[in-house]
Fold this sequence. Notes:
The protein has 176 residues and is mostly helical. It has helices at 13-19, 30-40, 44-60, 65-78, 82-94, 99-106, 113-128, 133-142, 145-168.
Amino acid sequence: MRLTPLPAEQWDGRVLDALSVLVPERRQNPVGAGTALATLVRHPDLTAAFLTFQKHLMIDSTLSPRLRELAILRIAQRRDCAYEVAHHVKWAARMGLSEAEIEAAGNGKATGELEAAVLSAVDELDLGTRLSDATWATLCAHLDERQRMDLVFTIGGYCMSAMAFNAFGIEPEHKE
């Protein structure tokens, strides 16, 4: 790891305040927060802002949890982010995606017009920061304006997370 989790003895009120934006009190500790957040809290102000955005993407988004997880799985795989892949495979399973659907999403494959368009949107935005007219038209046929905005920001937000986690050398937790 290039940046390591903040040692427990350095956790103070600012760290706990930053985490309180999204993390339940029972998990506001180095183990409960997980490797990524325990590392990010080295910069509490940035972490608070980041978690405010993440709260919208994970809890307040107008996207269905299924579409959100499909998009995240694809971007995590495209960005080769082991941390995001490990965590969102679990999240996707909790949201009802099968192992086959999870694997297919990571590889950019989906059944159904909308899910295929969501994965195409990930690929197009990650590759060239634009959406094709065909992908946009398909998204418009199925999603309202706010859902389309949430999709674009979800893709961008998880691109940013993957970049940061990879740059900092954050690896998934190994739970036996």
